[in-house]
From TrEMBL:
Domain Methyl-accepting transducer: 318-563
Organism lineage string: Bacteria, Bacillati, Cyanobacteriota, Cyanophyceae, Oscillatoriophycideae
Record-given protein name: Methyl-accepting chemotaxis protein
Transmembrane segments: 190-215
Record has Coiled coil as a keyword: yes
UniProt KW Membrane keyword: yes
Lineage: superkingdom: Bacteria
Record-linked SUPFAM superfamilies: Methyl-accepting chemotaxis protein (MCP) signaling domain (SSF58104)
Biological processes annotated in GO: signal transduction
Keywords: Coiled coil, Membrane, Transducer, Transmembrane, Transmembrane helix
Organism, as annotated: Lyngbya confervoides BDU141951
Residue runs in coiled coils: 215-267
Amino acid sequence: MKSQFSRLSSTPLAHAIKTHVVETVATSVALSVVLLGSSTWNVWTTYQGFKNSVTNQVQLRSTSDEVVYLDEVLTMSARMAASTGDPMWEARYWENEPKLSKALDIVTQMSTGQSKAESEKTDAANDRLIQIEEQAFQLIKQGQKEEAFQLLLGTDYQDNKKIYSNAIQNTIAEVRQGIDQELSDYSNRLLWAVSFTGISCVFLVAGWSFILYVVRQDIRRREEAEAELKASQQSLQSAYAALESTQQDLAQQAQSTQETNQVLEQDVGHLLDIVSSLEAGDFTAQAAVSDRITGLVADMLNQFIEEMSRVIATVNATANQVNLGANDVEALAAATSQLAQQQVESVQRVQQLMEAVNRLSQDTLEQAKVSSESFQVAQAEVEQGESEMTAMTDGFQSLRIGTQQITRRVTSLNAFVEMATQFAQAQKRVASLTRVLAFNASMVASRAAEQRDPEQFATVAREFEAIAGQVNDLAAQTNQSLETLQQRTQQIQSAVSGIQDDTQEINQLVDQFTQRVDRSSHSFTNLKRVTQQMTQLGQQVTQSSEAIASAAARTLQSIEDIQGDGTKTEQQSRLTQQQAQKMEKIAQQLLDRMQFFTLNAESTAATPWIAPLSAATPAAEDTVNLLDADADYSPVAGFEAEQPLITA
């Protein structure tokens, strides 16, 4: 490098620098400020363009998500109104229908190209769905709930629902593609801006190195001239004895000049070392500040190094933490969706068990009817035997009472089973709502993972809080319904126990009848046959009762599993809400730190700018508590802001 500087020092430019050292340093400082300002302006312009385009795309995507959510709310309200006949669901439907229409209008206005065509399909399908739902509400008011429910499950409704869903999904896909394209374009622009800044820094470092080298050579030449002057003074000392006092003054001045030149040479060498460190990428070096001309250069160089180090470290750390938080929220949403699916499977198992109990109850009722018919045949046979008439009549009366009691218990058990079946259907609807909320949470999490705007992060966090509240309410309703079902199951167990006791009493009476029929070999032969049939029926009733008890026990176990899954879902919802609050706090801290950058009012109003995006950040692995919510990102003290580039 020194040989190259030696060749350059013989050029006319080097001669001009030697003759105008102060002017050259001032010009170099001004050129450095211009290059740094142009780099800052380029980055600011890129940021503003990115912010305007991506904000529109994100708003379109958020509105599409709101359309999906409101559509599910309207569908659920219509079906619940048809299922229960409660006017509350119709009121809820008409409360949310204007919101859906408004959201669809926003999507249609903001969409372009294929996305606009998909929005028009969504509007047409939505209008048809609203017409069908209005017809369903009219049927409900007329008391035709079953017809209204079938209308909502009809082919026309499902086809339009499918068209509506596909159009929304296509819109979301196109929005995501547009966002990816915007990110790619602005990443390229950012790369060019960084390249320009790097090239500017290289030229600045090279220019300053050359200027400092020329100044250093000038100082060395002055020292050589001073040495020659001293030699001339010594050779002329004998001839100019009268000027001895003047020579002493000149010697003192020469010594002062020599000391000054040595100090300047040391300062220039120190600045060259600092510049070499910057070329190597070391921003921890600091230049010594003095009251000489080199002190101004060292002070400006120190300020530049300090602020670049602070900004790079703050942006890098904040981007990493925000990316980790988005990945953690997405993992929580996936876990919540998995728990909701487990609840749906448990509810289906409970419904299957209830159907099995219902079938067993029907079999028991049929067996009781057959037992009653056999009893009537046995009563006709008893009339033929006068000697056993009185005893047999009393026994049959007792048997009839037991059979009627079993019939009543089976009827009560059937009613309990129907109530349990209704509960299972209600749980299935709750599980469907839980899946919808989990799907919404997953979509918001995906959106948060792709988001880099701190203001949008705050909006996403508030959406997560709303979804977590709805999931918590559903979990509370599920727990309350499970307690009611547990009480019904205990009542079923009591009824089954009573049936078993009555069956045992009937078996004892049948044994007594068998002994009496044995003593009447001829007249009670038919009675013996009928009694054996009744004994077999009693055993079948006992087996059916045991099967019902076993099914009820399995039902209770499945209900406990559902209750456990509901508790886990509630815990996951709390974790999601806490994570969203941490992400909001991190976004606010990043906004506070970015207030350090300042521009004048005219530049801020006339030029857009975009902040650099993090190229790649590590993903979260197994934990959801990696965000440092207590990190300090306060602005650097001692610098006054004319106007903040980004405000909270």
